[in-house]
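Exercise 3.2. Students should predict the tertiary structure of the chain below and write it as structure tokens, then compare their answer with the key that follows.

Predict this chain's 3D structure.
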Amino acid sequence: MKPVLSSTLPTLDSLGITKAVVETASPVEEANKWFSAFVDAIRTSDITSIVDLFHETGSWKDVVALTWSLRTLGGKNNIKRLLDARLEATGLTILQLSEEALKVPIHVAPLPDLAFIRFFFTFETLHGKGSGVCHLIPSGPSPKVTWKAHALLTQLDTLKVYPVQVGIFRNRTIINETWEEKRRCDPEVLVIGAGQCGLQVAAHLKYMGVSTLVIERNARVGDNWRTRYKSLFLHSSIHFNQTSYLRQYSKSSPSLILAHFTHRFPSTWPFFSPAPKLGDWFEGYAHFLDLNVWTSSSVVETIWDGTTKYWNVVIDRGGITHRSKAKHIVFAPGHGGSIPQFPDLDGKNCYSGRVLHSSEYKASSGYVGSKVVVVGACNSAHDIALDLCNHDVDVTIIQRSSTFVVSHQALAVEHAVTYNDEFPTELADLLGSALPWSTQKLIIQHTTLRVARTTDRALLEGLEHVGFQTNLGPEGAGLSALVYERGGGFYINTGASDRIIDGSIKLKSACSVRHFTTHGLALNDGTELQADVVIFATGFGNLHDSVRSVCGDEAAQKVSPLIGLDDEGEQRGVWKDSGHEGLWVATGNLSRTRIRSMHLALQIKARLRGLFRREELTF
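Answer key:
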């Protein structure tokens, strides 16, 4: 059965409800009334009554708790299908309404005509403990209004028998062998890539008691940030880009279940983190969390043994060949693939200048006095063009299609609502996952348009005036839609847009490159653009190509699509079963990695200890 995802928001107007009715409702009373009925129905396994507590637009979003995967079941029929398949097997029990200050039931209104009562709760299953969030909406004719669930989230936070080894659960074993000897056995999990994805997955696995080896091709952990262009820095705030572990417990979030998973950078850390500094952070991260990382290493060969359910792996470590076995491989290339993507253009052999990919660009110093053309109009293209412009290099951007542009100021304001010095990051992450993508997307459409018409109006009008083409993202849903659905296609303005507007960075838009000429590029509008250097900021290849390069054609063919969203509004193939047994893919920016790395580790740990079978993933 195909999932049913709501295509309209449950606005008060569409529900036939007045604001007065909403405002007179007590969040505490309505939350307790709904939750008591929910608990009673769960206790008696009364699936019909559970389903009746949901609105027609309702959905149940599950993160590993019931489904051992990342699923969103929309519509009453699909919620019933979830419960028929998984309620008894999960053993959902000990449900308690949260009463902490930041989690008490409250009215929330993401939009003027959209009203929820939101509350938090905790629960247990046969194998773990978790957290939940519910958003209720008013239903029925006034004044006899009942509150029903528009969105319910259940998220597994820890396993009962295998608690995360922090705080009171830290490892107390006396080790009589040397630390290095302890690491020499074959790992249960091999992680390929020591970037933000690989390191945080490895950290969660290690402190769940899973022996893990991380393979990194660079000479030092963090070189994937240090070796990029020197002007690179994160375009979103440091609060949005926290990492896992290394923190003290938060007084505002004393719950053991969540409090140990997120670390705040030092209070002195810059708001926008420079790439080299971030590289140093991850090197320290690997050291202080005692992660087993082999640098200057690469995986030469992987062969899956379908009988023993092991990967046979050949590793080149600094020229020395090692053979190992692992039950699981986590492929962690970072945000996107690792293979630079070039357009296939004729005439390259005749071109007299220099051609490189944006991943090869380091600094402007080698380009002074040259004419540089940057092909592409997203983050890397703008960053490189701005760096060149700031050092008086003649630089032109070729924009082949429209770009979503948002100012870093507008993005910072949006993130600062929950990602700041005071609000617990783990709670912000939970809230960010609480609504299904179908609802989030519709809300974001409104906020994206509002920002474009207010905060960023002058910026976007200035770009339009000089011919730079902008858009509002897929279906007008801005940055989030591009990140989740395409993995790119945007620029967070940190100065390059202003230089395009004032002409310091030259622009050729609404055109594509036909072929190289002796002295530059021929464009499809019939013009030729002369260039001493052409930099292709054209992204990286499909993640499948990266998987294929390490695991081979046979394995790659079994892996599901690794970009975009499925029919349930969840990312396809990543952070969950990839389609190939024992092979997982972890990819995303720092915030996505912080959130999902724990969920992936929980799935692997549960699979290793036989808490569920792959067959249970399908229903």
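Discussion points: The first helix runs from residue 12 to 15. The CA atoms of residues 153 and 434 lie 6 Å apart.
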